[in-house]
Design a protein that fits this description.
homodimer; Arc Repressor Mutant, subunit A; 2 domains; four-stranded antiparallel beta sheet; 10 strands; DNA-binding
Amino acid sequence: MTPNSSKMSCLNCRLSDLCLPFGLQITEIEALEIIIKNKQPLQIKDVLYSKNQTCKSLYAVKTGSFRSYISNAEGLEQTIGFYLPGELMGLDALFEGRFCSSVDALETSSVCELPLTHLTELCLQIPNLQHQMTRNFSKEITANHEQMLLLGQSSAKIKVAIFLLMLSKRYGALGYSKSEFNLSMHRHHIANYLGISHETISRQLTALSKEKIIQVKQRAIKIIELNLLKAIIEPCNTDFYAHSH
Amino acid sequence: MTPNSSKMSCLNCRLSDLCLPFGLQITEIEALEIIIKNKQPLQIKDVLYSKNQTCKSLYAVKTGSFRSYISNAEGLEQTIGFYLPGELMGLDALFEGRFCSSVDALETSSVCELPLTHLTELCLQIPNLQHQMTRNFSKEITANHEQMLLLGQSSAKIKVAIFLLMLSKRYGALGYSKSEFNLSMHRHHIANYLGISHETISRQLTALSKEKIIQVKQRAIKIIELNLLKAIIEPCNTDFYAHSH
DNA sequence: CGTTGTTTTGACACTAGTCAATGGGTGTGG
DNA sequence: CCACACCCATTGACTAGTGTCAAAACAACG
């Protein structure tokens, strides 16, 4: 909640173990810090970057959360994913040098900007950093595969359950509670993301409430019976959500 | 159909512009060639690698096609994606050093094996190669996003249409016909991949046949009216499938 | 306190899943 | 070379689950 008024530093950042600096030497982190550009915090619905825009920088989420999406000529949007603190945005742009999706802020949020030219240069100098980049790429691909698994399920109940467990896991990894969190996205974002209608999201959430598996108060979610929630996804469980990491 | 008896060479390979060597100098390609290991061709259903196995090599598809999937304790499989010639398999393993999905052959197929230790070493020596790896990572992420777009659609008709257009585009990029191709995967693979039942796949394909938009003869697909097929996906079109690249 | 945007609930239609049977192709063995 | 078996794909009948449309409840904001 405290504004990021103090000098930016990866060394002091509580996300350093989850973000790019993970596994780097102190001197290497210092070299990384130098290239990071400050950027004004973004307000809700502010667009960080748009599809087809030339990619000059990658962005790491510092605080808040973001949504990536693709919109068509008619203005319809398909939500591709959500980004939480410590996650790297823009990796899909490195193929052609242009962003392949758009990203906007779901709440007041801040990012660390990593200018590509400097980052590429630095990767050549610091093999560890290159390795970290590779890990981040691979992580994003793995996350995408998890999501496809999610979307490939036909049942809305399973989709909603997996969605909640996925968030629980990610918040847990950030050091927040795994059982209580606030959704930063609207129902229609979730709906769009899961490929079901927002009314169905509502109905599934209230159904889970009535089964006393979760409590829902608007955006506030509390998971009461984690095991029962996990039991719902059993038919498609591939131990993605079974272990903590 | 001719067995790969001749000495392997990226320089002679007709995929070189689509695969890792793209954009490399001749001397650099020669350095890359040296580390590539020969591997016996795989027969249908042969497993190239399995989830959780330690990743010692990446693999590029030389001929044929592959399917990646994740299977759970009960043996149920969720198909994650399909790989065609020139595409790199195993990128999701670099995060933790273990494969996060399994891959099997859909037909008699062959691969180029890229031992990780040598590849990593070579990337440090050849910045161009590192750049190519980055491009491949990014390309996979972009492809994943396209697929999420696909899976995020609720209508089976749209899903099947996008699936056909996606294949058309990929075969086209390989220099094959964009309008006539043979599916190397079973209906139930497609079904599983799209998150719908295989009966629905059948019904949608016959529906498209009756509308004279495509012709279906078992695995053989012929797209008659490309524009009508594209019109079906209009409501969700994000120009992914609109332009040729 | 009213306005606006978001979420929930209800009613109904329709899509797609399930189960079951049929049809086609391919391969093997007599 | 034909007959049978097996696998895969298609089709049909029925039903459960979702989408759609519309209205109400709720929260946030000025």
